[in-house]
Amino acid sequence: MVEPWPIIASQEAFHNRWLHVTIDTVQLPTGHVYDYTTIHRDKAGVAAVVFNARGQLLLEQEYRLPVGEVIYQLPGGLADPHEDPAECIRRELREETGLYAGHMRYLGSFWNNPASSNGRSILYVCRDIQAAGATQHDTAEFMTWDWYDLDWVKARVLDGTIRERVVICALAYLWLAGEIA
Fold first, then answer.
1. What pLDDT score was predicted for residue 133?
2. What pLDDT, on the 0 to 100 scale, is given for residue 141?
3. 148 with 56: CB under 8 angstroms?
């Protein structure tokens, strides 16, 4: 039977406004003691799966330093600890694209990488899109966005152009909900 590992000791190794890292000394089921590094996210990630009236999906392009590439991604960000995820998505969509979603529906949530982090992402489908004013990017946000046909998006996932987990999970949730084939 698989059971939780007892934590013998925990030490914070790093902390900033985005995350903190701990090294937890745990006892494995074999009795061995092991140091496990965990990245803690105090804020949930949120993402908007935005469709226009023609059924096209909004994707942003932004350079991501850790992978050294310009990637395709969904609009989104981090929700403050007591911020409603739907309101956070509305805020992030407006800040990053200058758009407002008239209709929103919860799609699902997932762990980003439970082997190394407690981070999770929450997805909402957004429709009835309207202009909401100028964008307000954060200091380190440099992005563009456009509308893409779903067949193009699915083909880019299959050929490896799109490898970003939130986009791929959003497509999976849409498929499971019967919204796309």
1. 86
2. 85
3. yes
Looking at beta carbons, which pairs linking 38-43 to residues 24 or more positions away fall under 8 Å? Answer: 38/116, 38/117, 38/118, 39/116, 39/117, 39/118, 39/119, 40/117, 40/118, 41/78, 41/112, 41/117, 41/118, 41/119, 41/120, 42/81, 43/18, 43/78, 43/79, 43/80, 43/81
In what side-by-side order are the strands of the sheet with 20-27? 7-15, 20-27, 33-40
Q: Is the pLDDT of residue 138 over 90?
A: no
DSSP secondary structure code for residue 179 in this structure: S
Give the model confidence (pLDDT) of 72-112 as tens digits: 999 999 998 899 999 999 999 999 999 999 999 999 999 99
The residue to which tokens 């937890």 are assigned: 24
What is the token pair recorded at 103?
A: 């209709």
pTM of the complete model: 0.92
Q: Which two tokens stand for residue 125?
A: 């489908």
Pairing of strands 33-40, 99-111: unpaired
pLDDT for the residue numbered 91: 94
Give the CA distances from residue 20 to residues 5, 16, 17, 44, 158, in Å, rounded to whole numbers and listed in that order: 21, 6, 8, 14, 34
Measured CA to CA, the distance from residue 171 to residue 169 in angstroms comes to 5
